[in-house]
Amino acid sequence: MPHLRTVAVGDPMLPELDAIECIEMLRDGGSLNASFVGTTGKQYWLLFSLKSELAPGGRFVRLGYERPVVFERVETRHDATSVEWQSVDLVTLLWAEADALLMQMRRLVHAESDAKWLDAMEQVARTEGALPPSIERVLGVPRSPRSN
Known about the structure:
This protein has 148 residues and is α+β, with helices and mostly antiparallel strands. Helix content is 18%, strand content 38%.
């Protein structure tokens, strides 16, 4: 289990950015992630985990986001074909700290898809976890009972 702690603004535990790898919505239903490389060459994730519920009628409803976390991603190779990723030094951030990291990313973003998800992450950070208008709240069609 990764170590968990909260940092204050200006804490040296926050990584300095060197390059953006990818900013995206994850396939877990809507968590937002910014993958980046720090000035030390280490890979990090800034993650906004989705809060959701299954509503009556079977619809998936996005409610907003948990407090942001940042952590180092460490690759371990077991052999030529087997790779495992571990999350190391998980740190829970204040929304203002996440926003500060996102502002640093703005100057490094070149891909249109990264810019789209960076916009969404900035909106989430500035509203302290609220679902931005650019992300659908309700997904899926209601499931009907199966008949045999």
